[in-house]
Amino acid sequence: MTRAKTLLDAGDRLAGVDLARGLAVLGMLTAHLATTEELRWGDPGTWSGIVDGRSSILFALLAGVSIALLSGGRSAVDGDRLRIVRGRLAVRALVLWVLGAALILTGVPVFVILPAYALLFLLAVPLLRWRPPALWALAGATALIMPLLQPGIDQVVALAGPDVELVLGWHYPFTVWISFVAAGMAVGRSRLTALRTQLVLLAGGIGAAVAGYGAAALSPSTGGVREGWAEAVWSAAPHSAGIPEVIGSGGFAVAVLGASLLVCRTFVRWVAFPVRAVGSMPLTAYVGQLVAWAIIASLVLGDTGDLGGFRALDPLGPFVWTTLVLCTAWALLFGRGPLERVTAWAAAVVVRP
To answer: What is the DSSP string of 97-151?
Structure first.
C-alpha cells in the first residue's frame, strides 16, 4: 500500500471526500443502468432507489467542496492567486461543458450532468471569497426560495426547446442546485480533518434529511387551482427540485460526506481504496462509463438510445467492477486521472501566474 498511500493520501487529499465522491459516481451509474423502485424508507426492498437523485446531489455538493479546497480550503485565496483560481475555474467550466455536449451527441439516453456542472462552476466564481456563514445563508435561501419559482422558470426554459434544456443540463437546474454547491463550499471552508466537524456534518445532515423527507410525508394533500404548483414545490421526489427534496436530499448528501470522513479515520480507508480511486478521478470515470456505454450499445444493439435493450444486457455489474479495477490500477500506476490531468493542464495553459 506504499504506492497507494503516496498517491491518494497526499497532503492535499482527503480520503473521506474521495470516498464520498466515488460513491456518488457509482450511484449515478447505478441510477442509469438499473431499474429501481420508488424509495420507501420503511420498505427495505425499495432501498435501491436511494441512488435516484441523491447521487447527483451528492456529486454537486462535492463539487462545492472541491472548489473550496482548490481556492485555499479554510483560508480563501486573495490577490493574484484569487485571479488565477477564478480564471482556471472558468476554463474548467468550459472544458466540462464541451465534454458534456460531446456526451449528449453520443445519443446515450441519460441526462448528462456536465453542462449543469459547468454552469455551477461559473456561478461559484463570485463566491470564492465568501465566508462559511454567508455561504450557508446563500444555500439556505436558495433552498427555500428558488423551488417556489422553479415551476415558472421550467415553463420558460421549456419554450426554448429540448436542445436548450440539454445544453443547460436542465434536469439539474442550476437555479436550485447552486444551493448544493454553496453548501459544499461552506463545508470545504471548514476544518474537515477535525472529528467534531465530521460529527456535526453527519448529525446535521441526518437532521436535515429527516426534516425534509418528514415534511413531505406529513404534508396534507393540496387542492384548488394551484394544486400542480403546490405539488411541484412540496415534492420530495428525485429531481423534482421541491423544497423537501432540496432539504432532504441535500441533508442526505451532507450526512454521507460526514460518514465517509468518519469511516476513513479507520482501517476502512484501505478497504475502500478502489472506491476512493474512483472518487479521485470522477470526471474520467463518469465520461469513460458513458463512452463505453455508447460503444457497446452501438456494436451490440445498433442503437445507442435503446435504454431498455441496454439494461436487458445486465451491464451494471460489469460496468461497476470495470470502473473499480481500471481506476484503482490507474491510481496506483499514474496517480491523477487522465481527464483530470487534461483539464488542469488546459486551465494552467490559459491562465498563467
So the answer is: HHHHHHHHHTT-SS--SHHHHHHHHHHHGGGTT--HHHHHHHHHHHHHHHHHHHH
